[in-house]
Design brief:
Blueprint (H helix, E strand, L loop, with lengths): L1 H18 L7 E8 L7 E9 H4 L9 H21 E2 L6 E13 L14 E12 L7 E4 L1 H4 L5 E8 L2 E7 L5 E3 L4
Parallel strand pairs: 1-7
Antiparallel strand pairs: 1-2, 2-5, 3-6, 4-5, 6-9, 7-8
Bound molecules: zinc ion.
C-alpha cells in the first residue's frame, strides 16, 4: 500500500509544481494521501517549504550556530506537525515523522550567475498518519503560522481513492472537509 500512496503523492505533487512556482518564501505545500478514508485510515503526508520559512536561512549550515538552528527547527517540525495539520480528535489519528531534511535547490538557476544570495534550499518532511476511526465527513484545520510564523500560506491537497480535495490556507481559519463534492 505504501508504494501506491507514494505514487499518488508523486502525481499530485507533480500537478502542483506545474501549476505553481516551486519555491516561494512563506509558501508551504502539503500533500496528504489515503487509500481510503473508511474504517481505520492509514496514509502519508508530505510537507515542503522553503528553508527560510522554517530554519530562517537558506545558505549551507556550516557554523555550529547555523547547524544548531537547523536541528532545532527540524525538531520543532517533527514534534509539532500535528498542530499544523490537525485531524479531528474523534478520529484518533496519530502522526509519526518518517523523515525531515533540508535540501539545496539547484534547478531554475543559471549556474554562471549563481551567487551566495541566490542560493535556495527547501525543507522536505514525510509523515505517516494512522487513524482509529473513519475520516468520512471529518474536518481538518491548520496551524502553520502558529508553529512557524514565517509561513503565510500553504497549499494543502488531499487524495483518498477517487476523492481529490485542496485548500489554500492563508488566514489559518480555512478548513478541509473530507467528503465528495
Ligand atoms: Zn529561497
Amino acid at each position: 500500500m505504501r508504494i501506491a500512496l507514494v505514487f499518488l503523492l508523486a502525481v499530485s505533487l507533480g500537478a502542483q509544481t506545474r501549476q505553481r512556482k516551486a519555491h516561494e518564501h512563506g509558501s508551504a505545500k502539503v500533500n496528504i494521501a489515503f487509500e481510503s478514508v473508511k474504517s481505520a485510515p492509514k496514509g502519508v503526508i508530505e510537507f515542503e517549504a522553503p528553508a527560510e520559512s522554517i530554519t530562517g536561512f537558506e545558505h549551507e549550515a556550516k557554523s555550529a550556530a547555523d547547524k544548531a538552528k537547523q536541528t532545532a527547527a527540524l525538531t520543532t517540525l517533527k514534534a509539532r506537525f500535528a498542530e499544523m495539520v490537525v485531524f479531528p480528535a474523534a478520529a484518533a489519528c496519530k502522526i509519526t515523522n518518517k523523515s525531515a531534511k533540508v535540501e539545496a535547490e539547484d534547478h531554475g538557476h543559471d549556474k554562471k550567475s549563481k551567487t551566495k544570495q541566490e542560493q535556495h534550499s527547501e525543507v522536505h518532511a514525510e509523515f505517516d498518519v494512522q487513524c482509529a476511526k473513519p475520516l468520512t465527513g471529518a474536518v481538518l484545520t491548520f496551524g502553520f503560522a502558529k508553529v512557524f510564523p514565517k509561513i503565510h500560506d500553504a497549499d494543502v491537497a488531499l487524495i483518498a481513492g477517487d476523492l481529490q480535495l485542496s485548500v489554500e490556507v492563508k488566514t489559518g481559519k480555512e478548513t478541509l472537509r473530507i467528503e465528495a463534492k
